[in-house]
Specification:
By secondary structure, the protein is of the alpha/beta class. The protein is 42% helix and 10% strand.
């Protein structure tokens, strides 16, 4: 194919070919058709296009996905209503974000909304919400979308910026989309209105939220105005849903509430500790509607810790007439930063000061921190860690009785104790797996026999979730080997590998010697692809 070949109606191609990756939700309509059109036209313009559509899933597939995303010049996410909640798509965008930090802004993200302008779930929202997108609403938009996309690619420089130069800011490559009515499903859905989508935080008023012991413990800690409340649990265990209910309780008790989701912080906000503190302070000022902004008090002659602490003490806490409950979600994202110990040490110092002086300003602050990763793997000095003080809560699996109650709320798709046992044998008590499975059984009228045959398939209703786990494991070849060993019934060889696999939600057990796959679903899927 000629490098400068021009498709009818499309401007001149980039002088050199770019590496372009299209990420999308498998088996979603019209995503697949639009993906094929874009791939064809981008290739005709002389660029190299990668999609994972024809790759066989497995270890090599997972390695190739990450390699292509990290080497790409541009990533084109297709964001339909179905894709908006895709775990695998979200993880691919996380890889692209991390690669852009290392490669000074490359790859650049050029998102396309596919007949959908509604909200995205995290981490997608934090990565893409600030980026203007192209909007495809029907086949009539295809030519215009492709033309604008190729124009954006044509303006993207091929060579990466030299080390030390600031990263590109991400060109906003299309005018704002015309106002659109509330997004409707891409095709008629048989799901009754009573059912809600599964994935992300469970809405506050949802009848499908099941309180667990950690709920009562959190409510008691907030009522006591504890200094630090830690909410720990593996991925998709319900930490964010629990935290949201704790904050709602605080509002009902007349407390002031602020919330920071670390997944929404971009690369620039995590580049250095001063920018990070400014981001937190500005967020607090906005949420609490403070009159004095951080920029008015920040003094470069003082250190970042002093500036942030001073603003929090003088402008935030001193100006509030009620205690402040500050929810911090997904703080794992900070563990890998060079300044994480500095930040967490500051949080710990407020706890210590409050213990020494109950009348100090910090007596009016409760930090509620949700995280999954074992903090001690990243914080060397435990005396400077907030993760071994305060009230510590662990979000546990559903019990068989709780699964039975959720089955009742979904209209008893599982009719007998025997059927409940068969279902639980596949998914254990994992909250997301239980809810998603009952949703499929009830809302989509899937029989238990079909559930058992489809659950672990690559293109089944758990396929997106399972592919993400596979890619996460394969990123680390040593961890992949350890996971293989656990699948064979062997213990984890080191505490670190045990904690990492348990934090990811792949295994359960109290000690490395007791490590085992979390449920039959995970064991079946991973044995097929890792063995």
């Amino acid at each position: 194919m000629q490098e400068n070949q021009v498709h009818s109606g499309v401007g001149p191609a980039s002088p050199q070919p770019l590496r372009v990756v299209i990420v999308y939700k498998r088996d979603a309509y019209p995503d697949e058709a639009l993906m094929r059109l874009i791939a064809e036209r981008v290739e005709q313009s002389g660029h190299a296009v990668f999609i994972d559509r024809h790759l066989t899933l497995g270890v090599e597939w997972a390695k190739e996905i990450e390699r292509e995303i990290r080497q790409a010049d541009a990533i084109i996410p297709l964001l339909s209503a179905e894709a908006a909640g895709s775990e695998m798509l979200g993880y691919e965008l996380e890889m692209a974000r991390d690669a852009a930090r290392e490669r000074h802004g490359r790859p650049q993200l050029l998102p396309i909304r596919v007949n959908y302008t509604g909200p995205l779930v995290e981490p997608m929202a934090g990565i893409l919400d600030a980026i203007q997108y192209l909007l495809w609403e029907s086949a009539n938009d295809s030519e215009g979308v492709v033309t604008e996309l190729l124009d954006a690619l044509g303006r993207l420089p091929v060579s990466e910026p030299a080390a030390g130069n600031p990263p590109p800011q991400g060109r906003r490559f299309t005018p704002p989309p015309k106002p659109a009515p509330a997004a409707a499903p891409l095709r008629p859905s048989s799901m009754p209105a009573v059912f809600e989508s599964v994935g992300g935080a469970v809405p506050l008023r949802s009848e499908f939220y099941l309180p667990r012991p950690s709920d009562g413990e959190l409510h008691a800690a907030i009522a006591r105005q504890d200094s630090i409340v830690l909410i720990k649990g593996a991925r998709q265990m319900g930490k964010t849903s629990l935290l949201a209910r704790g904050l709602e309780q605080a509002r009902g008790q007349g407390m002031r509430v602020a919330f920071t989701d670390f997944q929404k912080l971009n690369a620039a906000q995590l580049e250095n500790v001063n920018g990070f503190y400014l981001t937190l302070a500005e967020s607090l000022a906005d949420q609490l509607r403070l009159a004095k902004l951080p920029a008015e008090t920040w003094d470069e002659r003082r250190g970042p810790n002093v500036n942030f602490e001073r603003y929090l003490r003088r402008e935030v806490l001193a100006g509030l007439e009620a205690p402040l409950v500050w929810g911090l979600d997904e703080v794992d994202r900070l563990f890998g930063s060079v300044f994480s110990s500095e930040v967490f040490g500051l949080f710990r110092s407020w706890h210590n000061e409050r213990a020494l002086d109950p009348a100090c300003p910090w007596a009016g602050l409760t930090l509620t921190i949700a995280y999954a990763t074992e903090a001690h793997l990243f914080i060397a000095d435990l005396n400077q860690s907030p993760f071994n003080v305060g009230t510590r809560l662990t979000v546990e699996d559903f019990t068989p009785l709780q699964t039975a109650e959720l089955n009742r709320r979904y209209g008893h798709p599982l009719k007998t104790d025997s059927e409940l046992n068969r279902f639980t044998h596949w998914v254990g008590g994992h909250p997301y797996l239980v809810r998603r499975g009952l949703h499929e059984l009830s809302a989509n009228q899937v029989s238990l026999e079909s559930f058992e045959s489809l659950a672990s398939r690559d293109e089944g209703f758990y396929g997106d979730h399972l592919r993400r786990i596979l890619v996460l494991l394969v990123k680390d070849s040593a961890l992949t080997e350890i996971a293989r060993g656990v699948l064979r019934g062997e213990p984890c060889p080191t505490p670190e590998s045990f904690y990492r696999l348990r934090s990811a939600g792949v295994i359960v057990g109290a000690t490395p010697a007791e490590a085992r796959p979390r449920c039959r679903l995970y064991a079946t899927y991973l044995k097929r692809h890792l063995a």
